[in-house]
Here is the input.
Amino acid sequence: MIDVPADMDSVVRRWYPIGTDDIANARRAVPRGVYLSGVGGSGVSAVEKELAVAADGVLEWAHDVTTAAVVVYVLDASAPLGRDALAELAPALESTTVAVVINKIDAHRDWREVRRSVSAVISDRVPRAVDVSLWPISAKLAECSRTSADRDARDSLADESGIDALGAFVCSAMVQADHTVSERKYNAAVRAAAAGARREIVNKARAVTSASTTAGLRAERARLADSRDRGRTDRAATLRSRLQLSRAETMHEINEAVRQFTSHARESVENASRAELSQLPAHLTRMLERARDGVESSLVTRLRSIDADLGLGAEVPAEVEARTEIEEPTSRRRSMEDRIMIFVGASAGVGLGRIAVSPLSMVPALAIAVIPFSLILGALAAWWLVHARSLVADRVHVRTWAYERARSAKSLWEQGALARILAAETTFAQAEGETSRAMAISVETELGRVEAALRGAAQHRAAVLAACDRDLASLDRGIEKFDVSDPANSHPESLERRVEPTRSAARLNR
Here is the structure.
């Protein structure tokens, strides 16, 4: 037997350790006996029985293919060799003398087509078959030959069954030189171990070259590059849009607060008495201050929300300008209109008094008393008119003051809010720049790490592929010493050596 080259043995040990054990077992094994197997329903038990009778009890049965000197595999004459049966038979074909038995030729007239199909399949799919022959037989005819009473019929049936020829072949193969059979099995074990190592090497090379091994790193690199290129632009655009939205919302809130204040001031002034009217400016002043505090609180909340959402870590700017105190309304001075109103009220009062007491003047006794009464009544009417007109004028004065304070407050609030938003925009832009630079440095660091990992993976892949190529070359060089074809299998026609047994055509179902 040829020794396995050292480099090939090293490759097999590393990639397919079980193959080393198989080679050692095959080197020590002494094949003997017959291993019988076959396709289910092909009559394996009947062939075993008739083969034992034909060999006259000299056959020694083996338990598996690895220890057998001869393998008998039974097929049914009604069907060709299937994929599963070929997979079961292939290891024996490459290491042992195999007799492929086509049973039941007496019942199936197309057995010759099956035999040709089996021969073609084995020649095409198992090119390393060492010694294989086809044996068309009929176990049923062999059994009939033993039970027939006619001697001539027994001889004819036995000849037609082909069992005797098969038994002679099996007995001859059993006693062939042990060295030849052992060497075949040893060579087959070496080739199987090399094939197993080759499969492992190829699988490793495919796994290393598979895109899935670095798909995660490439995806991470693309994500980091996109984050680096788009991160700062997106953050700046988001900051601008959020500040513009805060500006619009703050202006709307200021307008709404002023509208609510003026509406409340108008209703309060119209329904206020003279005593309430004196306290109303203080109440409106407090209401205006609460509205101003609400606007500032909402603006600070919006700016802090922008800072938190963008992760800027900046401080919200304080109020740009100090608050302007709201002045109380000045006392209303008497104008020319008030003086005219006093004169008109006095005249109207005297006239109304005279009209009211005119019926009494027709009584002579009351003529003197009518004059003072009319004067008192006229004075009361004049006082009421002057007082009512003064209240209306005071209400107009307070309402005008409230409207002016609202317009002034709106202007101041808008100016302060815009200045504060502008200061926040400057502060946030600086913080965003610093954050973007820190993030860019972090992204570049991560990109460097990923690039280093990809380079390492590429170097590892190249090293593994080079090692795989070296190991495959060692296997190719080593297996060349064992690729010696058996003389019996040097031509495909060897499968046709046993075409069919000699028989009488009248006894076959043709």
Confidence is low (pLDDT under 50) at residues 485-494, 496-510.
